[in-house]
């Protein structure tokens, strides 16, 4: 007998159906992309605001779909996280990034840049994640101190006890940890003290309206002060203008990345010893 309230029908509203179909096809296409290795990495420099020197690079995944063209990670990473496909994808990212780092290391440039790799919560929470990281480092004969893992604060808070174990193992390996999108999740400041992390990344949303928005100024100052107090490095994300870069430098933020310096580019286009002309 048909339901009177129509509640069963709401599910089949056309826009929801269309959304489901889009998702299902994205899921299938991701599977093919995993099998065909249709991903690549781009790299965006992290710049020392005092000197203009590039101290590190963040690896960012790119997916060029055969007919749809580039699909943004903000679109497919959440789907991959829900389906579990993030595990093979994340493993590929880590391996590919380390292969690139090995090349830069072998080029004997005098100093090798740090390489930051985004690790999704799901990937980080695998029991043996630290062992996986260790194996990749050994396979590519990397100096573990050159490798940084970027994890969102929300990911760390999901299971604090096992997180702490994994973080300690990574620290013992010599790998550093950055808290990504800092300030946008809910992290307890007391965990920040307990967890062996090395850097805070100020989320782009707090940088966008600098140097004008008084709330953002207050938040950015507080994060920089917190980082100083806890002896953590601090990196500002999404710096697009000279004014933002100057403001952050004057506030004591050491490192920044953003389109103002360079957009993410393929590894072959990166000269890792690059010093950007100080615009200051
Ligand atoms: P995220 O880790 O916070 O990365 C920063 C994002 O901001 C990147 O977008 C980067 O291209 C972009 N960006 C950098 N500077 C600027 C700027 O000045 N202006 C603007 N408008 N954007 C800027 P992208 O590459 O599209 O990645 C989006 C998100 O997808 C990342 O945010 C990260 O959460 C996720 N992601 C990207 N690559 C990976 C990956 O390899 N693994 C995992 N698990 N997640 C990834
Ligand atoms: Ca990141
Ligand atoms: Ca961010
Ligand atoms: Ca604002």
Outline the fold blueprint:
Layout lengths: L6 H4 L3 H23 L2 E10 L5 E12 L3 E3 L1 H11 L2 H21 L7 E5 L2 H4 L4 H11 L7 E6 H5 L2 H14 L2 E7 L6 H6 L4 E4 L1 H4 L6 H16 L3 E4 L5 H9 L4 E2 L8 E2 L14
Parallel strand pairs: 2-4, 4-5, 5-6, 6-7, 7-8, 8-9
Antiparallel strand pairs: 1-2, 1-9, 1-10, 2-3
Helix pairs in contact: 2-3, 6-8
Bound molecules: ligand C2E and calcium ion (3 copies).
Features:
280 residues, 10 strands, binds calcium ion
Task: Provide a quick synopsis of the model.
The chain has 280 residues and is of the alpha/beta class. The protein has twelve helices and ten strands. Strands 1-2-4-5-6-7-8-9 form an eight-stranded mixed barrel, surrounded by five helices.
Protein model, in words:
By secondary structure, the chain is an alpha/beta fold. The chain is built from twelve helices and ten strands. The protein has helices at 7-10, 14-36, 73-83, 86-106, 121-124, 129-139, 153-157, 160-173, 189-194, 204-207, 214-229, 242-250; strands spanning 39-48, 54-65, 69-71, 114-118, 147-152, 176-182, 199-202, 233-236, 255-256, 265-266. It has an eight-stranded mixed beta barrel with strand order 1-2-4-5-6-7-8-9, surrounded by five helices. Helix 6 runs parallel beside helix 8 (160-173). The longest helix is centred in the first third of the chain and has 23 residues, at 14-36. It is globular and about 55 Å long. The chain starts with 6 loop residues before the first helix and ends in a 14-residue tail after the last strand.
């Amino acid at each position: 007998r048909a339901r009177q309230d129509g509640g069963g029908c709401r599910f089949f509203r056309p826009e929801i159906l269309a959304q489901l179909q889009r998702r299902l096809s994205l899921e299938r296409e991701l599977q093919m992309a995993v099998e065909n290795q249709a991903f690549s990495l781009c790299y965006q420099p992290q710049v020392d605001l005092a000197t203009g020197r590039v101290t590190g690079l963040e690896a960012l995944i790119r997916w060029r779909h055969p007919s749809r063209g580039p699909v943004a990670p903000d679109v497919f990473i959440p789907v991959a996280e829900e389906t579990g496909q993030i595990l093979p994808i994340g493993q590929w990212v880590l391996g590919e990034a380390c292969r690139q780092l090995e090349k830069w290391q072998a080029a004997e440039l005098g100093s090798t840049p740090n390489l930051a790799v985004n690790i999704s919560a799901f990937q980080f929470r695998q029991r043996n994640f630290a062992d996986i990281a260790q194996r990749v480092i050994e396979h590519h004969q990397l100096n573990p101190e050159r490798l940084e893992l970027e994890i969102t604060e929300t990911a760390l808070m999901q299971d604090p006890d096992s997180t702490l174990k994994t973080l300690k193992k990574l620290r013992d390996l010599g790998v550093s940890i950055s808290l990504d999108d800092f300030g946008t999740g809910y992290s307890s400041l007391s965990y920040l003290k307990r967890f062996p992390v090395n850097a805070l990344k100020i989320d782009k949303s707090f940088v966008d309206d600098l140097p004008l928005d008084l709330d953002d100024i207050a938040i950015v100052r507080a994060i920089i002060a917190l980082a100083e107090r806890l002896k953590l490095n601090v990196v500002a994300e999404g710096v697009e203008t000279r004014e933002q870069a100057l403001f952050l430098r004057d506030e004591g933020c050491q490192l920044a990345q953003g389109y103002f310096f360079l957009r993410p580019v393929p590894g072959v286009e990166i000269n890792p010893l690059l010093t950007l002309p100080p615009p200051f």
